[in-house]
């Protein structure tokens, strides 16, 4: 209810959400994610001047430069606190957070944990290519075991963080989905579902990086049978024709967090779909929105009514 209402005077087109060619490598997964976010903004008729994209540092950090909306290209790992500040003071704005696997899961990990707990309405997109791409191939927290990189030429030695499994273990988590950049139907359906969620929607996008991880996600992307679709009427729905592309389809109820955690651990393919959604969780931006312009006594009453609502 705090999102911007589409203007009656405009019919926004794709060109209103960004122009020009993004300066990512040819074949980079970032290109399809950019087009998808622009399409979702257009289909939701978000007012460009009431939409903000916040990023950290990394290849994904360039995202706000390519959007025709407001944007903030922030410090390394700090996309979440900047986005949280924007949303808290201006709950009427549509907020997207764009972060990478190094940005979110390493230097920004503390902010990731608390942004999930604050559960302010925004779409968080984790561009996970399993490597530090901008700085030319260092092991990241999500690099698969044995990844050859400039920091580990003989292969990385630590097991990677599983971002969806981690997020599903955090306090007040309300939405976790996983998708891949090379399945445009699923990518669109996922970002759209995330944009419609009333709290913080965390989406891990497995992203191709042909410059440095060609063997890994390049090979997986060639064979769509490596994708496992998590399907449910309350999940992310695809047309019957699009469903045929998947190697396996698993029926999964996204209200079941225990099953979501089990599916997050699947490692003989990439499970994609809506793992978990709960629309009743406490939201800190509601507290902020109610507080704007209030006196001390009103703020106290507001807090009490929110505590009643969520207890
Ligand atoms: Fe994309 Fe990888 Fe090139 Fe970065 S280095 S722009 S992630 S292909
Ligand atoms: Mg990366």
TrEMBL record:
Residues 57-204 form the Thiamine pyrophosphate enzyme TPP-binding domain. It comes from the Bacteria. Gene3D superfamilies: 3.40.50.970. Keywords: Oxidoreductase. InterPro entries: 2-oxoacid:Fd_oxidoreductase (IPR051457), THDP-binding (IPR029061), TPP_enzyme_TPP-bd (IPR011766). The keyword Transit peptide does not apply. It comes from [Muricauda] lutisoli. This is Thiamine pyrophosphate enzyme TPP-binding domain-containing protein. The keyword Oxidoreductase applies. PANTHER family: 2-OXOGLUTARATE OXIDOREDUCTASE SUBUNIT KORB, 2-OXOGLUTARATE OXIDOREDUCTASE SUBUNIT KORB-RELATED.
């Amino acid at each position: 209810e705090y999102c911007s209402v589409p203007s009656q005077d405009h019919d926004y087109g794709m060109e209103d959400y960004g122009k020009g060619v993004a300066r990512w490598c040819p074949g980079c997964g970032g290109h399809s994610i950019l087009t998808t976010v622009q399409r979702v903004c257009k289909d939701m008729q978000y007012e460009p001047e009431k939409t903000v994209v916040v990023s950290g540092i990394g290849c994904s950090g360039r995202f706000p430069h390519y959007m025709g909306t407001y944007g903030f290209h922030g410090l390394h790992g700090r996309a979440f606190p900047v986005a949280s500040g924007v949303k808290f003071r201006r709950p009427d704005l549509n907020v997207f957070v764009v972060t990478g696997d190094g940005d979110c899961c390493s230097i920004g990990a503390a902010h990731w944990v608390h942004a999930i707990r604050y559960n302010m309405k925004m779409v968080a997109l984790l561009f996970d290519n399993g490597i530090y791409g901008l700085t030319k191939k260092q092991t990241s927290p999500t690099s698969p075991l044995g990844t050859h990189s400039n920091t580990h030429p003989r292969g990385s030695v630590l097991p990677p963080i599983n971002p969806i499994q981690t997020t599903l273990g955090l306090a007040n988590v309300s939405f976790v989905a996983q998708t891949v950049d090379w399945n445009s139907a699923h990518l669109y359906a996922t970002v759209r579902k995330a944009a419609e969620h009333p709290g913080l929607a965390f989406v891990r996008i497995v992203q191709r990086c042909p410059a440095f991880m060609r063997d890994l996600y390049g090979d997986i992307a060639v064979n769509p049978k490596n994708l496992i679709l998590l399907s449910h009427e309350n999940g992310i729905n695809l047309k019957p024709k699009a469903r045929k592309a998947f190697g396996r389809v698993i029926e999964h109820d996204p209200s079941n967090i225990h099953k979501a955690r089990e599916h997050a651990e699947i490692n003989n393919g990439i499970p994609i779909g809506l793992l978990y959604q709960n629309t009743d969780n406490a939201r800190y931006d509601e507290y902020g929105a109610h507080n704007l312009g209030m006196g001390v006594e009103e703020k106290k009453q507001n807090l009490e009514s929110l505590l009643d609502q969520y207890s």
